[in-house]
TrEMBL record:
Pfam families: Isochorismatase (PF00857). This is Cysteine hydrolase. Residues 21-210 form the Isochorismatase-like domain. Keywords: Hydrolase. The keyword Transcription regulation does not apply. PANTHER family: FAMILY HYDROLASE, PUTATIVE (AFU_ORTHOLOGUE AFUA_2G08700)-RELATED, PEROXYUREIDOACRYLATE/UREIDOACRYLATE AMIDOHYDROLASE-RELATED. Signal peptide: none annotated. It comes from Rhodoferax lacus. CDD domains: cysteine_hydrolases. The keyword Hydrolase applies. One of its GO terms (molecular function) is hydrolase activity.
Amino acid sequence: MAANLSLPATPFAFPFEVKHTALVIIDMQRDFVEPGGFGETLGNDVGLLRPIIPACQRVLAAWRAHGGLVVHTREAHKADLSDCPPAKRTRGNPSLRIGDVGPMGRILVSGEPGNQIIPELTPLASEIVIDKPGKGMFYGTALHEILKGRAISHLIFMGVTTEVCVQTSMREANDRGYDGLLLTDCTESYFPAFKAATIAMVHAQGAIVGWTAASEELLAVLG
Ligand code: C5J
């Protein structure tokens, strides 16, 4: 692929073409970012994730203005939970389990209010929305075929949480041959140390998983 843009990144520049790159927004759904959802049932302070929203909005607006492909994912299970392994549902001691009824409807179930993308990042009708039963965006989804069909080779990641669904998706993408970059101020964790460790391990060893960069670098390159 002949790249026509080059993003200053760590550990080295990330060359890409908008037409062969998708902006992937991982799980910016109410379940993780608003009180009463899955994140809070696990004992987390969901307020920690909200500060990235303005940076995510800026990138999304710029990417849309350039006509780039946008993929939104949601961690979501079918209403009958047939795609939720018992090990996932029964693990730990959350205040509500996947499928239980909470203040935003059934926890982590497709179509429920809590499962919707937050209003600040509402997908356009033309954008791809992937419901995924796992942490990674390729497991149990048709996303690889969709991206190949659109000649996408590069992925720019935002979303939550950094060390769980974002990192799992980046690793899955890496193994499928995509070049992936994580926007460091557009991703967040309930555990700041885990975010920092994930960023370090993504770009270590010559981008063994992928690249990292601040969103202002991408905005500058997009102009
Ligand atoms: C989690 C996610 N943390 N989207 N999901 O369970 O990272």
